[in-house]
Automatic annotation (TrEMBL):
Residues 20-209 form the Metallo-beta-lactamase domain. One of its GO terms (molecular function) is 3'-tRNA processing endoribonuclease activity. It holds the Pfam family Lactamase_B_2. It comes from Saccharothrix violaceirubra. This is Ribonuclease BN (tRNA processing enzyme).
Amino acid sequence: MTFGVTVLGTATPHPRPDRPCSGYLLHTAATRIWVDAGTGTLAELQRHTALADVDAIWISHTHADHAADLLPAYYALLFAGLPPHRPTLLGPPGLAHRLETFLASTGPNPADAAFDVRELHDGARFDVGDLSLRTAAVDHGVPAFGLRAAHDGRVFAYSGDTAPCPALDALADGADLFLCEADGGGPDHCAPEDAARAGRGAGGLLITHVGPGLTEAEAAERAAAPVARTGVTYPIGSS
């Protein structure tokens, strides 16, 4: 498989036994991007690749179930004796300050000591290795972004956390695989039916981030799509 996504965790709002919070490893033969760093995902990441081999970390928004493991990643990169490495950190405005504020009790700890920090904005485009990334602002009540990643003519799309919105539909349209949250609805989130509607233009739909008010079986039935499973790698397009 030359282009795929490995699920590191899907839980919300807190990790469960054997189920970390939101995180995914997007990879080709040459490039690795850690997409969302929810609580518990750093440990799961290391089942599949070394932190020193991650080219970039992409954070959809600053809620802890999508970003908290940036903290142990910071310590690992600087103080664990790993090979020198400073991955690109792509995240919403204010992410670096949020990280630095948490670390400040031990003295100055600039985020850019561990990460090459770059801020996302609507329509931002980045090339990381052989992956082309495009960012779209979505509707989550805080600055939040969805991701569209292309490699060799194939496209992966990820919702982050969002209510139904035109940007979500555009992200999914024409993607070979669309990974969409299905928290259960309510403010700032998608219900499984919303994920299904947004994913109509995609070649395949995979739901994730199912909230505590739903069982995964209920969510899968309502979305008519499978639920992402921790530890499983899903191909993107034909290999």
